[in-house]
Write a structure and sequence with these properties.
19 strands; 8-stranded antiparallel sheet; single chain; binds 4'-deoxy-4'-aminopyridoxal-5'-phosphate; 8 helices; alpha+beta; D-amino Acid Aminotransferase, Chain A, domain 1; D-amino Acid Aminotransferase, Chain A, domain 2; globular; 2 domains
Length: 329
Amino acid sequence: MAEKDVNTMKISPVVWKNGEVIKWDDARVHVMTHALHYGSSVFEGIRCYETSQGSAVFRLTEHIQRLLNSAKIYRMDTRFTRDEICNATVDLIRESGLESCYIRPVVFRGLDEDKPSFGVYGLLNPIETYIAMWQWGKYLGEEALENGIDVCVSSWTRITSNSMPAMAKAGANYMNSQLIKMEAKQLGFAEGIALDDRGLVSEGSGENIFLVNNGKLYTPALGASILPGITRDSIIQIAREMGIEVIETAVQRAALYIADELFFTGTAAEISPIRSVDHIKVGSGKRGPITEAIQKEFFAIIDATRPAPNNAPWLTFVGEAGEKKTAVA
Ligand code: PMP
């Protein structure tokens, strides 16, 4: 099937819905869908790259495991196993006709139209699982990866873990992210960094953050209100393999201003250098050498031109129908 082209954005014409493949145009929900009113959705963002050895999904298993973890926190039973969702994703990419894409699995509380339930409670609403995909370029712009971006510290506090667990990738968390992102953009910055309820650095609206100081890498620990980013984990492993010390710790706001280098990590943002925070130049005001060296290794891994640390199976090749699907780069 040819891919759907909406305003030059290539979108998969097929969507996976609860075990079936349906058309993009049929992937619709009722206005009284629980998630629309109460934020009851969890989701993932995954990239499939066109590598030197064919299309491959980056850390698919880890992303789907995080999806199931997010669902479990919110008492949502998808009925599908991790392997079933992984296989469905790979099959759908093949059917989509896309060589590279951004993959969006989403699990949410829907509406049973025969037995409608409209309250907050949610456990009476059916759980729906969908996977959609489209071609998505560089999230923070093409030049961002090389030149870096200008960011601010947000006036909004990051959601706190015993009210909205940042550990779950829940749709509702992104109301907080939207406040951070909208404020930053309207002030002329590319992105905002949120502090947590203790005033310590947490993360960007959709990225984890790393600081470089005297050749060492620092990043807020998982105890802070952050999403346990899969790119974050990948960078920690890559850096340690390169012999760079990585310290997961509490990071003060002021440490951002005096860092030698700063960068964001995320599936959409990949590794994006930060060249200023609150108009204060970071280091030399352009991408630093350690950021560049880590980017180089990361991009080689996602291009399948070098293996992942410890030969871990970070790439799942899409291959042809009927081919073995998982291979180590
Ligand atoms: N933090 C937030 C709030 C995010 O939305 C994302 C993107 N999923 C990240 C961090 C980075 O996570 P990952 O590297 O798994 O994409």
